[in-house]
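re: ur question from yesterday

yeah so i grabbed the chain u mentioned. its 265 aa long if i counted rite. heres the sequnce exactly as i have it in my notes:
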Amino acid sequence: MKVYISADIEGVAGITNWEEARKEHPTYPEFREEMTAEVVAACEGAIAAGASEILIKDAHGSGRNIIAARLPDCARLIRGWSGHPLCMVQELDESFDALMFLGYHSKAGSDGNPLAHTLSLKISRLAINGETASELFMHSLAAAMFKVPIVFASGDNGICADAKALIPGITTVPVSEGIGPSTVSIAPRRAQKLIQEGARAALGGDLAACRLALPEKFTLEITYDNPVEAYRVSWYPGMTKTGPQTVRFENSSYFEILRAIRFVI
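ran it thru and got these structure tokens back, copy pasting raw so excuse formatting
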């Protein structure tokens, strides 16, 4: 079994403040450790379910957070950013049996996590076909291009609820809940245990039930905090400005939607 893991940090157990997600801050190493531990737990669960090859995308910030020396022998790790439109699922293709999201977080404009955002702090909303999109939503549609099932997600309560609404058969492990600028989180060791068990159960279940159908056409809408940004990106080919802070792009190819996002955010 060949498994892809996309890992972020803003949805790991305990994280609460932007300082904890930034390399230059002294509190960052604690959450780098937790991000690594949760990825390792998911790998252990995947291996127990029969995975023989695991590709991991370090998908936070610099893309250089996971401590590579902790990973199992069957894992490969993508560090840094290539600039490819697949972004947080770089190198995903039809050869994978399943996709898992680790440490994901609530979308921009929601209150499920003090660190809620979608790709950038410059935008207040990103919508695809009228649906306010999280990073999980965006990259689940990317997986649908390759017919790869999305079987597991961990993170805050909000993103886990969104994942269930999008893919009813998915296994989720919510580790925290945002309350204003605070969080209520389960203990990191318990999060790691639940992630290991959840990954194993997810990969041992009906993978086909977790495939997402891809719509036939797409409308991308992005609302920026600053009208100056909306004006600037409105010059991307096919992009139109629909309001002081909002742009729209339509295409029948989801890859073109991802390409547009890559260049305007």
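noticed a couple things. The longest helix spans residues 28-48. also The chain has two domains: 2-108+135-210, 218-264.
anyway ttyl
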